């Protein structure tokens, strides 16, 4: 009996990843990689192929890009469906789907599929989704788009799959120049983007520059809708300066002529470090948008940062190396839970990373956000393991009290099988006065995203998706208006009373 148990465990712990996707294996797939730098037309060419197909799938790295792909197809009079973690627009007559990459349906085959920004397979948190899509996407023709640093990785995965791979190289459509002198903030010209690496620095620069410039801002904590509105204002020349984090490095096509780095260091979630050549190239590539400018320029607002750019910019980019990270699947979770005889998600995840072996250039990996969520979920009684697995993948951040409190309440609802109505945690004033006021509203929008994600997974328990979406629109409108006004970056004596009353209006129920 013990020997049989050990044999079954060894079978479970040794995985040939490609066998997990039988539909993809049955299609005799052809792989293509449209490889090239930003502003080379590779995604445009891929979308053209998608439009010619009888059925197709566009897998986007961001909800914003999935929406843009959906609108592009609709503009071309092609029926399309949009599916993301928090919104779905279904068209029963559509044979084309645009979705975020995590929402792929591995049981629905199409003629052509685009896997966008394939270099994201190296991302610590989300890379598994690109690995799974490359291996398991059920399409007769797979078109990957991405930068050259992913070329070796794509070749290795194609070799493991024993599938035909065609490489189509694209060149940048116009030249990109590194400026010889740094540019002070007093010398900024229209159609310039300033790059900082934190929300607070972006808002500080906005406060400093809005006296002499019309300013748009883009940073990661903003919802896709607000980022899109800020980008639109810059695109339509209602603003002349864009201040952004590296959130502009992916997917936002803007008429930027010059990109100026305000610093060459960033906090990466673990420590403060200098940015690398891959990050510089990805951001800098947004300068000199083809069709708007004949050439692009990159530089810095300080002598030290410019010197660093001049040293790093011409280095060869870092090639993505195997092994490529793989997340635990629901079937593997079920099997390991049974063998370990535990209801602790954290223990199963740790066993998975310590013991799982994959054929091919892959390695078992745990996602930091799942581990953080598992520690919360394991403290709850009467929560099934499959529910823990689902809830551990919810879009949460442990940095926000609003979101953590909501997450806790939503977990309790799942345990008790109780319906949860969406209710805002805050009441909006006429405008935000301080950056903290704005942050509360940004976090409330993220809480809405969490509710909408759950309404997709468990619609019978979280039925207020329409109400939540309407509320999100009003909150986003508030954020957009606030970003156009002056925001104090510190609490002042004459605003403390307002700020305290604003926080007091937060409601306790979630």
**Assembly status:** single chain
Give me the side-by-side strand order of the main sheet.
Answer: 5-4-6-3-7-8-2-9
Low-confidence stretches: 491-502, 504-510
Helix and strand content put the structural class at alpha/beta
Strand percentage, roughly?
A: 15-25%
Overall geometry comes to globular
How many helices does DSSP assign?
18
C-alpha termini separation: 50 Å
The largest sheet, given as strand count, sense and whether it forms a barrel, is: 8 strands, mixed
Integer-rounded radius of gyration: 24 Å
- Helical content, roughly? 40-55%
How would you portray this structure in words?
- This protein has 510 residues and is of the alpha/beta class.
- The protein has helices at 2-13, 22-25, 42-52, 63-75, 127-136, 151-161, 199-209, 224-235, 277-284, 303-312, 330-340, 345-355, 368-377, 385-391, 401-416, 435-457, 465-483, 493-504; strands at 14-15, 30-35, 56-60, 80-83, 88-89, 96-100, 110-115, 139-146, 164-169, 175-178, 192-195, 215-218, 241-244, 258-261, 265-267, 272-274, 295-300, 324-326, 357-358, 362-364.
- The protein has an eight-stranded mixed sheet with strand order 5-4-6-3-7-8-2-9, sandwiched between helices.
- Helix 8 crosses helix 17 and helix 16 (435-457) runs antiparallel to helix 17.
- The longest helix is centred in the C-terminal third of the chain and has 23 residues, at 435-457.
- The chain is globular.
- The termini are far apart.
């Amino acid at each position: 009996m013990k020997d049989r148990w050990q044999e079954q465990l060894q079978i479970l712990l040794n995985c040939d990843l490609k066998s997990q996707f039988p539909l993809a294996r049955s299609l005799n797939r052809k792989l293509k990689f449209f490889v090239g730098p930003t502003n080379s037309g590779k995604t445009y060419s891929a979308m053209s192929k998608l439009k010619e197909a009888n059925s197709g799938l566009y897998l986007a790295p961001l909800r914003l890009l999935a929406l843009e792909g959906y609108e592009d197809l609709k503009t071309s009079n092609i029926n399309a469906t949009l599916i993301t973690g928090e919104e779905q627009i279904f068209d029963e007559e559509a044979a084309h789907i645009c979705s975020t990459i995590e929402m792929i349906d591995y049981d629905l085959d199409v003629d052509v599929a685009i896997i966008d920004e394939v270099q994201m397979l190296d991302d610590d948190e989300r890379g598994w989704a690109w690995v799974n899509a490359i291996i398991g996407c059920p399409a007769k023709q797979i078109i990957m788009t991405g930068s050259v640093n992913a070329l070796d990785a794509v070749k290795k995965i194609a070799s493991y799959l024993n599938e035909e791979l065609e490489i189509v190289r694209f060149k940048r459509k116009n030249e990109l120049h590194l400026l010889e002198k740094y540019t002070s903030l007093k010398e900024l010209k229209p159609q310039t983007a300033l790059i900082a690496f934190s929300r607070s620095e972006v808002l500080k620069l906005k406060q400093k520059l809005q006296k002499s410039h019309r300013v748009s801002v883009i940073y990661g904590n903003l919802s896709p809708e607000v980022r899109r509105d800020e980008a639109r204002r810059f695109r339509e020349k209602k603003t002349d300066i864009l201040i952004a984090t590296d959130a502009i490095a992916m997917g936002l096509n803007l008429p930027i002529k010059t990109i100026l780095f305000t610093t060459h260091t960033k906090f990466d979630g673990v420590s403060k470090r200098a940015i690398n050549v891959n990050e510089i190239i990805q951001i800098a590539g947004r300068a000199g948008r083809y069709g708007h400018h004949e050439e692009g320029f990159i530089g810095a607002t300080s002598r030290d940062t410019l010197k660093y750019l001049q040293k790093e910019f011409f280095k060869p980019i870092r090639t993505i190396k195997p092994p490529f990270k793989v997340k635990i699947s629901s079937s593997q979770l079920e099997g390991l839970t049974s063998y370990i005889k535990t209801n602790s998600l954290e223990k199963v995840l740790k066993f998975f990373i310590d013991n799982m072996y994959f054929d091919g250039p892959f390695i078992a990996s745990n996602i930091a956000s799942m581990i953080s969520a598992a520690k919360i979920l394991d403290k709850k009684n009467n929560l099934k393991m499959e529910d823990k697995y689902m809830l551990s993948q919810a879009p949460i951040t442990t940095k926000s009290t609003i979101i953590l409190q909501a997450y806790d309440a939503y977990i309790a609802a799942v345990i008790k099988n109780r319906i949860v109505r969406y209710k805002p945690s805050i009441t909006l004033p006429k405008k935000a006065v301080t950056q903290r006021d704005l942050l509360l509203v940004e976090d409330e929008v993220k809480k809405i995203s969490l509710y909408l994600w759950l309404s997709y997974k468990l619609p019978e328990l979280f039925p207020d998706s329409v109400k939540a979406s309407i509320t999100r629109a009003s909150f986003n409108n508030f954020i957009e208006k606030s970003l156009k006004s002056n925001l104090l970056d510190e609490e002042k004596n004459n605003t403390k009373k307002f700020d305290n009353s604003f926080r007091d209006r937060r409601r306790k129920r979630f």
